[in-house]
Amino acid sequence: MSDTTETTSTPSGGSAAGFELHSGRGPFNAAFFRAVGPYLERSLRGQKRRVFAGLPREVVEIGPGVGANLRYLPRGGVLVAIEPNRYMHGRLQDSARGHGVRLDLRERMAESTGLPDHSVDTVISSLVLCSVGDPDVVLAEIRRILRPGGTFRFVEHVAAAAGTPTRLAQRLLRRPWAWTFEGCSCERDLEGAIRSAGFGRVAIERYRVHTPFLPFNTQIAGVARV
Which residues lie within the region annotated Disordered (predicted)? Predict the structure, then answer.
């Protein structure tokens, strides 16, 4: 993998994190995450510090956006960034330079990274599997590129328990939420998807954050090992 920034074209119909990228919402989401990124990071920092502790010098990230997780990579390391939303790229490149991380930027979908089989030790994601077209396909792709013993480390928001006020809010807001955030679903059982994806060992912690974005507040974080 290259030590320099590389940008490749998105396959036809591709988009950020693997769904159809709409011309107006791509720039909106880039601006939104630039604005609220520090607030979200404060809400998730404890879990990220735990899950992303001791990352190796080369990491693949699915949907890095504007670079919220670069702070967890070692200085001088390499981030292979699978980020098809080109409106995120400028801020991601600036952030990588600021953190002393070399960026290998690939404008591809999460379902098809283009990386060789069994070629990486670590894949990370945060707040991404909610938006991909098919989480099972993405998880299979992550398993394909991980070496034996490699890890997938994740921080994701998930569906709340049935019958709770949060689940009701997720149900009521699912359409405007998905339209606004490029297909993001707040009702996915991502814990179940990860546990059934064929990883050798899976450790997941459920927790809750407290933000005004109620559908976002039920979360999981963990590590899945090939």
Answer: 1-20
